[in-house]
């Protein structure tokens, strides 16, 4: 009994001294002599931190300006004593409030990301070939030509379209010169054509009408022209324009790199020009071309004024009709108009006209001497004030000749009856 009492007294004194010397970590000191009933309950685990605050590198990656104490709080080893749990809850709440402020920098980052321009698709081999696979042969060939110039020169798409337009228009120059020479020949033939048509109109004999048509055919064949010669330029230009229109429209729809194929205000070639600069420029160049070049080779044609007025109306309607077209089409259109303007300016030079065997502009026929053609070879003359007297004299002489022929036929019939 005495031994047990001394042992109990020594154990109590040891516990008392350990608590006085180490009061803050007394629960961590091992006690092999304590009774199980006297041992403190196992420390409760603190609530887990939110996942956003579990790793300090995440807050650093977001660049959060956390206070110094809060930044190191995530690295602190928390005590497992019951008293430190409340402090841990307070720290976790503060950190949760700080984490809720992440939305503000996130919004700023979102706005900054929205302000960055969208990357333009880079051209890749075969994109034009894939776009031209289902196109008509001339349209597909034109797309491959534009792509070839793009690959060879490395220029943007708008410049490649303009260069292709210049190339095609240059190749059509011989055809346009041939059309102009044929039109000049047709104007020179008008006096003969007018005389034949006058005989056909004043004659009532069907044989005379057939003879006049035969003479007109021989006259056209001898000079190598037809009544449709003035429309040859339209037959040349219309298919080229349609091929360019369909080719560029198909590339706008199916070639992704067209979105960045321009410069300045027309970077995206697949959208209309909201500033209307390109439609207005197209209309102005077309109008200037009409005023300066439309009479080349057609001097003396009475239909010239009507054609000019019609073309002026079309130039004015170009703006509302084309304002919804993609920008890429205008680089063919404007380039073609500028080429026509330069082409007409060069052909006005006397030295150039002499070299090309074209008559000087000053010596071409006046409109008063020219008839109007229809599509069937016949023509209708438009008299002028200066030539009305000559035509009336000629008509009276023809009528006199006709009356004399009728009288002679009547006399011959009477003699045959007698």
From TrEMBL:
BP-aspect Gene Ontology terms: protein insertion into mitochondrial inner membrane from matrix
Biased composition (Pro residues): 39-50
Presence of keyword Transferase: no
Keyword Metal-binding on entry: no
Domain of life assignment: Eukaryota
Composition skew (Basic and acidic residues), residue ranges: 404-418
Transmembrane segments: 155-177, 234-252, 275-292, 313-334
Keywords carried by this UniProt record: Membrane, Transmembrane, Transmembrane helix
Record Pfam families: 60KD_IMP
Disordered, as annotated region: 12-57, 387-418
Family membership noted in the UniProt record: Belongs to the OXA1/ALB3/YidC (TC 2.A.9.2) family. Belongs to the OXA1/ALB3/YidC family.
Record NCBIfam families: yidC_oxa1_cterm (TIGR03592)
Protein name: Membrane insertase YidC/Oxa/ALB C-terminal domain-containing protein
UniProt organism field: Oryza meridionalis
């Amino acid at each position: 009994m005495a031994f047990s009492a001394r042992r109990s007294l020594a154990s109590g004194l040891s516990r008392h001294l350990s608590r006085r010397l180490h009061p803050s970590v007394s629960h961590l000191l091992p006690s092999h002599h304590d009774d199980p009933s006297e041992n403190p309950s196992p420390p409760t685990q603190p609530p887990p931190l939110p996942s956003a605050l579990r790793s300090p590198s995440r807050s650093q990656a977001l660049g959060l300006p956390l206070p110094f104490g809060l930044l190191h709080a995530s690295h602190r080893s928390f005590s497992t004593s019951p008293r430190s749990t409340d402090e841990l809850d307070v720290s976790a709440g503060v950190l949760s409030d700080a984490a809720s402020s992440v939305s503000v920098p996130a919004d700023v980052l979102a706005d900054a990301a929205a302000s960055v321009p969208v990357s333009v698709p880079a051209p890749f081999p075969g994109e034009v070939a894939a776009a031209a696979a289902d196109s008509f042969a001339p349209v597909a060939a034109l797309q491959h030509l534009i792509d070839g110039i793009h690959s060879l020169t490395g220029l943007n798409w708008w410049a490649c379209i303009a260069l292709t337009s210049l190339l095609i228009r240059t190749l059509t120059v011989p055809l346009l010169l041939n059309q102009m020479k044929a039109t000049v020949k047709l104007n020179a033939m008008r006096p003969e054509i007018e005389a034949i048509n006058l005989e056909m109109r004043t004659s009532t004999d069907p044989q005379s009408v057939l003879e006049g048509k035969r003479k007109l055919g021989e006259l056209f064949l001898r000079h190598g022209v037809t009544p449709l010669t003035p429309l040859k330029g339209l037959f040349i230009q219309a298919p080229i324009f349609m091929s360019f229109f369909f080719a560029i429209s198909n590339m706008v729809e199916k070639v992704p790199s067209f979105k960045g194929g321009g410069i300045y205000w027309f970077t995206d070639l697949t959208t209309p020009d909201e500033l209307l600069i390109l439609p207005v420029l197209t209309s102005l160049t077309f109008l200037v071309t009409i005023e300066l070049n439309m009479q080349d080779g057609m001097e003396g044609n009475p239909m010239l004024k009507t054609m000019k007025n019609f073309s002026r109306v079309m130039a004015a309607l170009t703006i509302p009709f084309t304002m919804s077209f993609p920008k890429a089409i205008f680089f063919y259109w404007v380039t073609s108009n500028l080429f026509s303007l330069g082409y007409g300016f060069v052909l006005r030079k006397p030295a150039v006209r002499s070299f090309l065997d074209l008559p000087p502009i000053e010596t071409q026929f006046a409109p008063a001497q020219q008839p109007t053609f229809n599509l069937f070879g016949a023509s209708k003359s438009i008299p002028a004030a200066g030539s009305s007297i000559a035509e009336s004299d000629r008509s009276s002489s023809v009528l006199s000749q006709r009356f004399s022929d009728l009288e002679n036929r009547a006399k011959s019939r009477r003699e045959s009856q007698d």
